[in-house]
Amino acid sequence: MTKKKQPNLFTEPPQVLSVFDYISLINSNLEVLSDIAVEGEVSEFKVSQEKWVTFRLKDEKEEASIECFTVIFKLNQPVEDGMKIRVIGRPRIYPRYGKFSISVENIELTGEGSLKRAFELTKQKLQVEGLFDEERKRLIPEFPKTIGLITSPDAAAYTDFLKVLKHRFGGIKIYFFSARVQGKGAVEDIIEGFDWFNQNHKKLGIQLVVLTRGGGALEDLQAFNSEGVARAVFSSKIPVVCGIGHERDESLVDFVADLRASTPSNAAELITRGRDDVGAEIEGIVQNIEYLLKHSLEEKQSFLNHFFSNCSHFISEKTYETKQILSTFFHRIEAIGSVISQKKQEIGFVLTNVEKSIKNHLITFNRTVGQQESLLKSYNPLGVLKRGYGIIRNKNGKIIKSTKDMLIGDNIETVIRDGNFISKVQTIKPTNS
Amino acid sequence: MPEKEFNFKEALEELKKINEEFDSEEIDLDIALEKFKRGLELAKKCKEKLLEVENEVIKIKEKFSASTKTQEDN
Fold first, then answer.
1. Cβ–Cβ of B49/A171 closer than 8 Å?
2. Which residue in A143, A169, A285 is closest to B15 by CB distance?
3. pLDDT for res A6
4. What is the pLDDT of residue A299?
5. N or C: which end of chain A has fewer CB within 10 A?
6. What is the β-pairing status of strands A259-261 and A240-244?
7. At A128, is the pLDDT very low, low, confident or very high (cuts 50, 70, 90)?
8. pTM exceeds 0.90
9. Which is nearest to A100 in space by CA: A30, A2, A171, A5?
10. Cα A432 vs. chain centroid, distance in angstroms?
11. Which domains does chain A have, with CATH numbers?
């Protein structure tokens, strides 16, 4: 099918056109209505081949309805029959059947009911998929040095967050990604923010991302209930802290986030501890270690005192024992000394006796010797000669003691006191004995 | 070698560890004195860090004009 040049309806009003050209002409002239949002209630909502979406948009009061057509990826929120929505798209006639419909580019839910319903539907879906599982939630670093922040610079959330953070802790580097937080483009901005931080976190050392926005109507918080943002939070490699709305507000990203803060200020409070609190803790630790060290020193001092006291006791005990031993020893030595001196006396006595006895024996011996000497002296023949006796010898000099030792006529020598003389035996007269 | 950049978290963790060691173990007196000295040093640095009041905001991009104000009621 070749597309023909379309004539201008106003400058060149055509006389006769083919059906296709006629429909094309109408469609091109309907383009001017593409920015108009049409609000109505959804009916006959249908998805075919998991891709093509059709539904009717109708007025509640007036008997009016229009066919709508779109593709599934353009639905950023769940839609079902009965929901009030606002659609923006191109009005057009489908040439083949001459059917009029809106080719929907954007759908926004309107009215609390629709929003709440969409919220519940998305929540249910994501919950089933495990996006809210507690097990996958990561710990937030206790003292982050570098963080990412996604919010609108014009929002009170931005100033509140920074103010409280500054009050809590200093020296933190905050990479701020400016994003719209409501209305058109909010979802895309926030997702882009997550993409940016996930691409750059290693290089910049970003330890966590804070997604925050102040309170508002449910309609204003829609971006934070969208599946797209919820999935961006879920798939973030960096832990995410969400602080959306007021304390009572609940958004889907709160369930997915690693840490949920109730407000922007609360997000600042949760990601870092207050300097007063930390200061007090440090002070407490210092006091504790000071006390423990002092206690340990005192304990050691006390141990030393005890040790010295024990030593002193031991030494005095041992000194006493030694003195006792020495005293006993000296007593014994004394006793032994007295025994020795007694024995000495006894020995002296014995020695004296022995000496005396020897002396006596000597005296007796001397006496005996003297007597013997006298006796011996008396036996001296010379002494006998003096008393008038004589000694007779034969001619051989042998002493004649018997008459038998001589013969008559023998010359015999007689020795007397003062000389000798020779005589001749004349007679021998033996005596009868 | 340049001194390693001060890391508050690591310093506080080290201080806590020293505290735990003092609490749970019988430390040798020489080591205890060293640890005590180190603890005081860490506490001093941490306290100095706590005195730091400013945070630095680095804007990644100024994509939208100030006119795209959000309607917030907090």
1. yes
2. A285
3. 58
4. 83
5. C
6. parallel
7. very high
8. no
9. A30
10. 147
11. 19-110 (2.40.50.140), 124-276 (3.40.50.261), 383-424 (no CATH)
